[in-house]
């Protein structure tokens, strides 16, 4: 279940990153409409050029992170590794506490 959610989240990150990298002004306008829905005249806001560049850079970073995440999930799925309790960080931490 968690693997499926991770893949969906990474896919969403890739889509958002591609959108922000390719069309940062549109991405900023869409974000402004969503996050500032309680304000008037949101459509009249104009981002400064440095902010558009920063949004594009953040989009490239999101795109890269999402692609790496998807590749990692695909590699885990292809190797057939199942999430066993012995491999989880909680189990490792618990096991090391029990040994002391």
Keywords:
100 residues, mainly alpha, 4 helices, 0% strand
Summarize the structure.
The protein is mostly helical and 100 residues long. It is 75% helix and 0% strand.
What would your notes on this structure say?
- By secondary structure, the chain is mostly helical.
- Helix content is 75%, strand content 0%.
- The chain has one domain (2-99).
- Helix 1 (2-22) crosses helix 2.
- The relative contact order is 0.16.
- The mean pLDDT is 84.
Which descriptor suits the 3D outline? elongated
Number of domains: 1
Mean pLDDT over the residues: 84
- Total strands: 0
Order of helices and strands: HHHH
SS strand fraction: under 5%
List the helices and strands and how they pair.
Blueprint: H1 2-22, H2 24-35, H3 49-79, H4 89-99
Helix pairs in contact: 1-2, 1-3, 2-3
């Amino acid at each position: 279940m968690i693997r499926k959610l991770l893949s969906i989240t990474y896919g969403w990150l890739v889509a958002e990153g591609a959108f922000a990298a390719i069309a940062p002004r549109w991405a900023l306008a869409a974000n402004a409409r969503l996050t500032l829905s309680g304000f008037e005249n949101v459509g009249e806001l104009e981002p400064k050029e440095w902010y558009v560049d920063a949004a594009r850079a953040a989009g490239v970073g999101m795109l890269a992170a999402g692609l790496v995440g998807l590749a990692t999930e695909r590699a885990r799925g292809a190797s057939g590794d199942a999430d066993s309790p012995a491999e989880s960080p909680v189990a490792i931490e618990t096991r090391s506490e029990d040994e002391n």
